[in-house]
């Protein structure tokens, strides 16, 4: 838990604040946010080689870098006190585990996008059209909980969910009838796919473990964001 070149003193574990930070799509904007906030995590940037960081400004602040999708889980189970991640992954956890100890602190103003259900243009132009053609609707997604919620909300009588790790848009039409995919602001959905419905708009959020939020003093840190 030491950033290279720093020799940290002993910090009371009760006062430690552990922060989960994202790789991937949110990394650049999150690094800019933390730099402006002065949290002292200069080792967090594009092209970094360190995944365990210690703040140069706050001796009790430690950070680790995760895949975006893993951060809500790490915060909910109490491994980390704070996290920054997309609302899409927050909702994926909360839909599956409504009683999770996850607390949304605030929206951060970047990382905008949306989840869409998409189908092959050769198969259907609307969800009703697709339902009329198919017996069992096969749904491929990185977001199995949100995919199931979509199916139940739209009263799909017969469906199956294929949980994936990335690239769900490659599955229709041969291996899935629908895919639930994230589309970032400014991106275009693959021209072979037709968007059928928007399931969720998302952006980056600061989240906290509810127990940590109630028991630890994070006011000085949060006042800087």
UniProtKB/TrEMBL annotation:
<dbReference type="GO" id="GO:0000105">
    <property type="term" value="P:L-histidine biosynthetic process"/>
</dbReference>
<dbReference type="GO" id="GO:0005737">
    <property type="term" value="C:cytoplasm"/>
</dbReference>
<dbReference type="InterPro" id="IPR013820">
    <property type="entry name" value="ATP_PRibTrfase_cat"/>
</dbReference>
<dbReference type="InterPro" id="IPR001348">
    <property type="entry name" value="ATP_PRibTrfase_HisG"/>
</dbReference>
<keyword id="KW-0028">Amino-acid biosynthesis</keyword>
<dbReference type="GO" id="GO:0003879">
    <property type="term" value="F:ATP phosphoribosyltransferase activity"/>
</dbReference>
<dbReference type="Pfam" id="PF01634">
    <property type="entry name" value="HisG"/>
</dbReference>
<keyword id="KW-0328">Glycosyltransferase</keyword>
<comment type="pathway">
    <text>Amino-acid biosynthesis; L-histidine biosynthesis; L-histidine from 5-phospho-alpha-D-ribose 1-diphosphate: step 1/9.</text>
</comment>
<protein>
    <recommendedName>
        <fullName>ATP phosphoribosyltransferase</fullName>
        <ecNumber>2.4.2.17</ecNumber>
    </recommendedName>
</protein>
<keyword id="KW-0808">Transferase</keyword>
<keyword id="KW-0368">Histidine biosynthesis</keyword>
<feature type="domain" description="ATP phosphoribosyltransferase catalytic">
    <location>
        <begin position="68"/>
        <end position="220"/>
    </location>
</feature>
């Amino acid at each position: 838990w030491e950033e290279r070149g720093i020799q940290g003193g002993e910090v009371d574990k009760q006062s430690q604040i552990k922060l989960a930070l994202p790789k991937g799509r949110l990394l650049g904007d999150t690094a800019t946010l933390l730099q402006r906030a002065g949290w002292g995590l200069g080792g967090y940037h594009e092209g970094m080689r360190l995944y365990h960081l210690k703040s140069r400004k706050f001796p009790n602040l430690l950070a680790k870098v995760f895949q975006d999708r893993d951060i809500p889980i790490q915060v909910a189970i109490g491994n980390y006190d704070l996290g920054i991640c997309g609302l899409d992954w927050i909702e994926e956890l909360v839909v599956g585990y409504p009683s999770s100890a996850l607390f949304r602190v605030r929206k951060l103003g970047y990382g905008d996008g949306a989840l869409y259900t998409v189908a092959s243009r050769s198969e259907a132009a609307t969800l009703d059209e697709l339902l009329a053609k198919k017996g069992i609707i096969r749904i491929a997604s990185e977001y199995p909980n949100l995919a199931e919620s979509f199916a139940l909300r739209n009263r799909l009588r017969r469906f199956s969910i294929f949980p994936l790790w990335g690239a769900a848009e490659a599955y229709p039409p041969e291996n899935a009838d629908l895919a639930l995919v994230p589309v970032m602001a400014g991106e275009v959905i693959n021209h072979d796919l037709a968007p059928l419905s928007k399931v969720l708009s998302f952006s980056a959020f600061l989240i906290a473990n509810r127990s940590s939020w109630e028991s630890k003093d994070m006011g000085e840190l949060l006042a800087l964001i």
